[in-house]
Amino acid sequence: MATAAAPNKDRYFVPAPSAWPFLMTMALAIMVVGLSNFLESKSFGTIPALAGLAMVFYVSFAWFANVISESERGEYGKQVDMTYRWSMGWFIFSEVMFFAAFFGALFYARGLSLPWLSGAGEKIETNLQIWQGFEAVWPSNGPAALGGDFQTIPAFDVPLINTLLLLSSGVTLTLAHHALKENHRGICILWMWATVSLGVVFLGFQGYEYIHAYRDLNLTLGSGIYGSTFFMLTGFHGMHVILGTLMLFVITLRLMKGHFKPEAHFGYEAVAWYWHFVDVVWLGLFVVVYWL
């Protein structure tokens, strides 16, 4: 079992110059440009998106390997621990704002745009002339039914199963954390594998849900404002679940290698913070997107 060296609490750690931030920026830029072209059905999109994604995985693996090596050598003290805690806190705050913008877009489309287009408000005459017969009902396929006919996914079907899966994963992750703090590493690892499995099953059900929506319900990104907001919110959440599941997987492997101690394991706690954030976002999605 690997044992980390005792950190020098009084040492102010200064990391060596690194090219990883620059390489990660380039990888993300290539991936985003490729994905944008792919969504716009341009010919040159798939290859850059996949190449950028591969670069992101490589840089992430190499960069975090360096950080883990520094941690296990005992380079980090209270100063680094505090820095990581603040950094993770601000990162999760930025993610909260990220999803708040998307929930805001849904609220604007559903609570403001639809009534305006149906003739409510100050510009009632103009709206009635442009969009005659438009009704402010949700879900909407847009003015003049531009999004075509589609069906929605019932809340108390696959979405409810996924809600139970994520809530259960939050419980298993908490049990694992308590086991780690009590130095019951074997029990902690078992609960962690259960958490990873629940995340994978969630992603499997979401993949099934998307296939069912496109193939059987005609619910696509082109299905008016409902389709675009539905896939924007659930799709980005799914990406966060993928990232969170990978993080949980890596943390579990590190636990099996003997990393983390009952009194010092912020790498574990950071992943737990992120996963609980993902759980909370899904509860909002289930209520606002699927149920109401």
Write the layout of secondary structure elements.
Layout: H1 20-39, H2 46-72, H3 78-117, H4 124-130, H5 158-181, H6 185-216, H7 224-256, H8 266-291
Helix pairs in contact: 1-2, 3-7, 3-8, 5-6, 5-8, 6-7, 7-8
What does this molecule look like?
This protein is mainly alpha-helical and 292 residues long. The protein folds into two domains: 60 residues, Helix Hairpins; 216 residues, Four Helix Bundle (Hemerythrin (Met), subunit A). Helix 3 runs antiparallel to helix 7. It is globular and about 75 Å long. The N terminus is likely disordered.
CATH class of the largest domain: Mainly Alpha
The CATH superfamily of the largest domain is known as: Cytochrome c oxidase, subunit III, four-helix bundle
Main beta sheet, described? Answer: none
CATH architecture of the largest domain: Up-down Bundle
Which bin fits the share of residues in helices? over 70%
Proportion of β residues?
Answer: under 5%
Helix/strand-derived category reads mainly alpha
End-to-end Cα distance, whole Å, is: 51 Å
Indicate the overall shape.
globular
Radius of gyration: 23 Å
Count the beta strands: 0
Q: What is the total number of structural domains?
A: 2
Tally of helical segments: 8
SSE order, as H and E? HHHHHHHH
Regions with little confidence, pLDDT below 50 for 5+ residues: 1-6
Q: Could you name the CATH topology of the largest domain? A: Four Helix Bundle (Hemerythrin (Met), subunit A)
- Whole-number mean pLDDT: 88
